[in-house]
Amino acid sequence: MVPADGREPGNPADLRAVLFDMDGTLVETEEYWGEAMFDLAGQLGGRMSAGARAATVGTSMRVAMDVLYADLGVTRTEPQIQADVDQILDAVARMMTERLIWMPGAQELLAAVHDAGLRTALVTTTPRRLADLVIRHIEMGYADGGPFDVTVCGDEVPARKPDPAPYRQAMAALGVGPGESVVIEDSLVGVTSGLAAGAAVLGVAGLQPVPPAPGLVQVDSLAGIGLPELADVLAARETVGPASR
């Protein structure tokens, strides 16, 4: 990845922290959420559209449920909504324990960041009980206990993505500022959260189109992305200034 404006590549020494989203960024778990929601839609007598499914990516379970119900044209009571959420969470948990697939380049990039001694965080909208299934799987590949200094889950923040709270909370726990941090995301809500927190963002192509924005560099996948490329993402942010906070 070469800077398009001809400026000098970024300095890896300026980069102190990398904050990773989980679903669809590090591991291919988005398909699990989709499968569980399509199954629920069938039980409710309908079929979830591809557009509605894409609109749920990176959102909280309640937002995802609202999108699903609107797409199907159904109304559910609060107890029914909670039962639907529990069904989806249980289904996704089962699939996570059966198989877990890395996104292209993600395992290599995470290892490179860890080996370089940079501060790392996992910042996900997924609830802790599901995220821990993935975290434990990732940690098995590390002799020193795992690659993440901090993990922040969707049920541990005052507001979920696209609010900047999750990334601000993670940066505070890491002891780093947004000007030293790169966020890696695949969804519009995640990119919005990272930019609003003031960080540089590397956007990875996923199920949702993400429009260009100051401080955002977009790539097709993490394959071939290393520390020099992350430094370039940080340098690109510095040319436009931090996002509004």
TrEMBL record:
<protein>
    <submittedName>
        <fullName>HAD family phosphatase</fullName>
    </submittedName>
</protein>
<dbReference type="InterPro" id="IPR023214">
    <property type="entry name" value="HAD_sf"/>
</dbReference>
<keyword id="KW-0119">Carbohydrate metabolism</keyword>
<keyword id="KW-0479">Metal-binding</keyword>
<dbReference type="InterPro" id="IPR006439">
    <property type="entry name" value="HAD-SF_hydro_IA"/>
</dbReference>
<keyword id="KW-0460">Magnesium</keyword>
<dbReference type="InterPro" id="IPR036412">
    <property type="entry name" value="HAD-like_sf"/>
</dbReference>
<dbReference type="InterPro" id="IPR023198">
    <property type="entry name" value="PGP-like_dom2"/>
</dbReference>
<dbReference type="InterPro" id="IPR041492">
    <property type="entry name" value="HAD_2"/>
</dbReference>
<dbReference type="Pfam" id="PF13419">
    <property type="entry name" value="HAD_2"/>
</dbReference>
<dbReference type="InterPro" id="IPR051600">
    <property type="entry name" value="Beta-PGM-like"/>
</dbReference>
<comment type="similarity">
    <text>Belongs to the HAD-like hydrolase superfamily. CbbY/CbbZ/Gph/YieH family.</text>
</comment>
